[in-house]
Automatic annotation (TrEMBL):
<feature type="domain" description="Carbohydrate kinase PfkB">
    <location>
        <begin position="14"/>
        <end position="289"/>
    </location>
</feature>
<keyword id="KW-0808">Transferase</keyword>
<dbReference type="GO" id="GO:0016301">
    <property type="term" value="F:kinase activity"/>
</dbReference>
<dbReference type="Pfam" id="PF00294">
    <property type="entry name" value="PfkB"/>
</dbReference>
<dbReference type="GO" id="GO:0006796">
    <property type="term" value="P:phosphate-containing compound metabolic process"/>
</dbReference>
<dbReference type="InterPro" id="IPR002139">
    <property type="entry name" value="Ribo/fructo_kinase"/>
</dbReference>
<dbReference type="InterPro" id="IPR011611">
    <property type="entry name" value="PfkB_dom"/>
</dbReference>
<dbReference type="InterPro" id="IPR029056">
    <property type="entry name" value="Ribokinase-like"/>
</dbReference>
<dbReference type="GO" id="GO:0005829">
    <property type="term" value="C:cytosol"/>
</dbReference>
<keyword id="KW-0418">Kinase</keyword>
<protein>
    <submittedName>
        <fullName>Sugar/nucleoside kinase (Ribokinase family)</fullName>
    </submittedName>
</protein>
């Protein structure tokens, strides 16, 4: 595979528009309910496949019906799921997302099998053989906080593999814990809250520069409607968001990562890759779920 996404896999059940939770046994009739493959590894893999990038996803899922569903969805989207490990007795991670009319997304979440992912579940030859390895959610996959995994990343990078990393949570203790990965990462792609928590800085530009000093070649901080901030050795620059109607922001960060990684695969520079990520994220924001708007996404890559 050209790209391997490694980390968090989640089944999302999304409903919109949800203005309130019904009292008692009442029912609210909605416009739409969807089930998608999500999470910082699975969602990014689906985005990459939509862009026409050969991609395999690696992680841990349960041996339950939700796991069966996740396999089916990802395979239908064109992702190689042969590297996913089924964990006996574990539940596949899942979220229920009632999407508000303004696109806000509170969530109910079960971490499930993601918490059990370990170095023993990772196929060395896939990591070392990939052009890009995207680490998704190292803040919650504690079993990979292991010197053996860091050594594998070192080996892969020495062989020419590019390593990118995104985070899942906004919990300060978890995000700060993922800082230990920075010496083994080429490109870090947190959101604003994650960048501030990981760095301890008071503003996003200082946060990006602080994290940049710990190893990555570039830090790209997603800023929602304000676009993204790109920091590398040459300084910092802003990439504006596209002005599109927003239905649901679920998966926009994963789409940004997918577009960015696709840009790297195609030999684009950091700014060009960030623009491709921005364009894909805008498509996802216009529909419900992390795979919304991905039909025809290949044209973004072909027509950049």
């Amino acid at each position: 595979m050209t790209v391997v996404t490694l980390g968090v896999h989640i089944v999302d059940v999304l409903a919109r528009p949800v203005e309130s939770i019904p009292a008692g046994q009442d029912t609210h009739v909605l416009e739409q309910i969807r089930v998608t493959a999500a999470g910082t590894a699975a969602g990014t893999a689906v985005g990459l496949a939509a862009l026409g990038v050969p991609v395999a996803s690696m992680g841990a899922v349960g041996d339950d019906e939700l796991g069966d569903l996740l396999f089916m969805i990802m395979e239908r989207r064109g992702v190689d799921v042969s590297g996913l490990v089924r964990k006996a007795g574990e539940q596949t991670a899942a979220s229920i997302l009632p999407i508000r009319p303004d696109g806000g997304r509170p969530s109910f979440h079960v971490p499930g099998a993601n918490l059990t992912l370990s170095v023993a579940d990772v196929a060395r030859e896939r990591v070392v053989g990939a052009k890009v390895v995207h680490l998704g959610g190292m803040d919650v996959t504690w079993g990979l906080h292991d010197p053996a995994f860091f050594a594998l990343l070192q080996e892969a990078r020495a062989a020419g593999t590019i390593v990118t990393m995104d985070l899942l949570s906004n919990l300060p203790d978890l995000v700060r814990g993922a800082r230990s990965f920075l010496p083994y990462v080429d490109y870090l792609l947190p959101n604003e809250e994650q960048a501030l928590a990981m760095s301890g800085a008071g503003d996003v530009e200082k946060a990006a520069r602080t994290l940049l000093a710990e190893g990555p070649a570039a830090v790209l901080v997603t800023l929602g409607a304000q676009g993204s901030l790109v920091a590398d050795a040459s300084g910092t620059a802003r990439v504006p968001a596209l002005d599109v109607p927003v239905v649901d922001t679920t998966g926009c960060g994963d789409a940004y990562c997918a577009g960015f990684v696709a840009g790297l695969v195609d030999g684009l520079d950091v700014a060009g890759s960030a623009r491709l990520g921005t364009a894909l994220a805008a498509r996802v924001a216009g529909g419900l779920g992390s795979d919304a708007g991905l039909g025809g996404a290949r044209e973004l890559r072909d027509g950049r």
